[in-house]
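[step 3/7] fold_predict: job queued, chain A
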Amino acid sequence: MKFLAREKTVLQRYSPKLEDNLQQLGLLSLEGENSQCMKIFKQHGAVRLLLPSQYGGNNASALDALFYQLSLGSLAPSLAIATTMHQYKVATLVEMARNRDLSTLLDRVCSQNMLIASGGSEGNTGGNLFYPTMTATDTETGLLINGTKRPCCMTWSMDILSVLLVTDKNSKYEGELVNVIIDASDPSIHRSKFWNNRFLSAAESDAITLVNTEVSDENVFRVGTPNNSKEFATSAFLWFELLATGSYLGMAARLIEILIEEKKASAADITSLDMMYSSQLAALEYVANRMDAGENVSEDLLARILKIRYATQDAIATISTRAMETLGGLGFVKSDEISMLVMSCRGLMFHPPGRKTMQKNLLHYMETGELTLA
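[step 4/7] structure written:
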């Protein structure tokens, strides 16, 4: 099968004309100022990928979502990273909907084609949470939210902001972890520039500040106490790591695809890079298949995907460096596309939890079977 054909077939199945539209604009346009990538994504109904069919969604599997994001990464890096945040947040809300009624929210996201931005860290499986900087104060009808999230993908294009908070122990929510849903058009949300790097700038990873933002109780959803939200945290991180790692691997795959298209590299050069790519993709497929089999809250699987993610970081570094070297100085001089892809695909290393933090935690897991992300 042609390189990336299987992955792009999945993209075509769910968003038939999206690849053509993105290719027509080209990578440099999609990654530049005033990029139209978010608008195009919404036009193709891609926000519905992981929403269940009962809400009008595509009900995609974890494996298909992996291939979808990988294909996006090969076409529009910033779009892939930004929409990873939307897709994993949707998956998390769908998981929450198993125990509470979120039908109004999920119906609205689907029918109005809405992008969801994530405004908080999702915690860890050991009971200690990455406490967000945003705070909540009780009101008679809900909560008053204050604080800043930066960077926040889709700062300027989001339709909904989903924020995870830990309430005060004296709150009516009794110190529980809550997920609050905020309309992004709320005038109390202030946006400001934060991202000053041209690479991945179209992901709109800028700053949002909430100033006395009122959220009604009907838009506040209990997740559990910081000590008993283990399953929620595990599921959220599994989805994020799967989709984010796939998106960055897709950027590296595009470099291999360029080598194939230019027909200047040797078979040995190309196939050695493909072996690295295919091996990492196979590892991600293993995780996706286990998630599709119902292991969304497996701590063992979370440990596996973290190891796979760090190994993928190393593979991406090798693929991108060797691909750039093989493409040569003229390729680097003539176009920004190569350097854009090389620099963008390395961004996986900056997402939490960082490798340095997790090395001791993963060793502790190997010794005791207890995993923490903090």
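[step 5/7] annotate
The beta strands are 116-118, 135-138, 142-152, 160-166, 177-183, 189-192, 206-216, 220-224.
The chain has three domains: 5-111, 116-224, 230-368.
exit 0
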